[in-house]
Design goal:
Blueprint (H helix, E strand, L loop, with lengths): L2 E6 L11 H11 L3 E6 L12 E6 L7 H14 L1 E3 L2 H7 L4 H7 L8 E3 L13 E5 L9 E3 L4 H13 L4 E5 L3 H5 L1 E7 L2 E8 L20 E2 L4 H12 L9 E8 L5 E7 L14 H16 L2
Parallel strand pairs: 1-2, 1-3, 3-4
Antiparallel strand pairs: 5-8, 6-7, 6-8, 9-10, 9-12, 10-11, 12-13
Helix pairs in contact: 2-3
Length: about 290
């Protein structure tokens, strides 16, 4: 019986927001695996006692990125980690978008402002400011040129906390076509979803946001699948990916481009796509079996 740890976060004092976790845990147990949902930062856990550690909802990691990456590297020395620690390190810093662009993948145009850099912000179009290490739209906001002073204060706050900022044009296509999330698992397209814009005008960067507003199933176009596959092929250590989510928006030319790659802890949206559960279970069991029998 394979032993599988599903790494999650400690949501105290409230309940977990991961609705996939109990469903996937129970399905793995029903398939004959020993599956445990475990807090990633629980120092009492013997990670080497598992055949596979599957990163699921470690949704507090972006506040503690260095600690989380060190944890991933430690787990990878003890057993198989999905996704691999090298991918985790690479994907927790959104400067990877520059590498994708250099590889010819269409991405949202992005500039980076590190602590100490001048507040070089657009003066002729709406734009988004967010940290290179973040999740769930944390510390993200959209601004018009007239809101320059507010955006400067936003930058100063992030720089004070040691974050590098990324500045992107606000992609107007989100308002009409939404943002599409293509989920891959076990090397194949699993399903896709579409959501509405996360960043509303005049919302403070430190306000809570709804991460997936208006989420609905989506049938991706061939071009969307092609862009997503090109992005994944450009990932270092791409053959080690067990799962991935590629978030796409339309550029000014109406064609899809990559907003983000979610290779660490993407929500699977299994409640929206219940038919995907058996495929996920089969892929996870296969990964656990391969780690036991190299």
């Amino acid at each position: 019986m394979p032993r599988i740890a599903l790494a999650t976060y400690d949501p105290r004092p409230g309940p977990s927001k991961d609705r996939d976790l109990p469903v996937l845990t129970e399905a793995l147990r029903a398939a004959g695996a020993g599956a445990d949902a475990v807090h990633w930062d629980d120092v009492r856990v013997d990670w080497g006692g598992y055949d596979l550690v599957l990163i699921r909802s470690t949704w507090d990691y972006s506040w503690r990125t260095a600690e989380f990456v060190a944890w991933a590297e430690g787990v990878a020395k003890a057993t198989r980690l999905a996704n691999p620690a090298e991918v985790v390190r690479w994907n927790t810093d959104k400067r990877y978008l520059g590498e994708l662009a250099a590889a010819g993948v269409p991405v949202v145009p992005t500039r980076y402002l590190a602590p100490g850099d001048p507040a070089d912000l657009p003066g002729d179009h709406e734009y988004v400011v967010k940290p290179t290490s973040g999740a769930g739209a944390r510390y993200a906001a959209r601004y018009t040129p007239e809101q320059h002073d507010i955006a400067v204060r936003h930058l100063a706050r992030m720089h004070e906390e040691g974050f590098t900022a990324m500045v992107q044009p606000y992609m107007r296509g989100i308002d009409t076509a939404g943002e599409r999330a293509l989920q891959f698992f076990g090397g194949a397209l699993l399903h896709a979803s579409r959501k509405q814009a996360v960043l509303a005008p005049d919302t403070a960067f430190d306000a809570d946001k709804v991460a997936h507003p208006g989420l609905v199933p989506w049938t991706p176009t061939p071009e969307e699948v092609s862009v997503a596959e090109r992005a994944l092929a450009a990932v270092p250590d791409a053959p080690g990916l067990l799962y991935a989510r590629v978030d796409l928006v339309d550029g000014d030319d109406g064609r899809p481009c990559v907003m983000e790659l979610e290779l660490v802890e993407p929500n699977l949206f299994l409640d929206l796509h219940p038919g995907s559960l058996p495929k996920v279970v089969a892929a996870v069991l296969g990964a656990a079996a391969s780690s036991r029998h190299p």
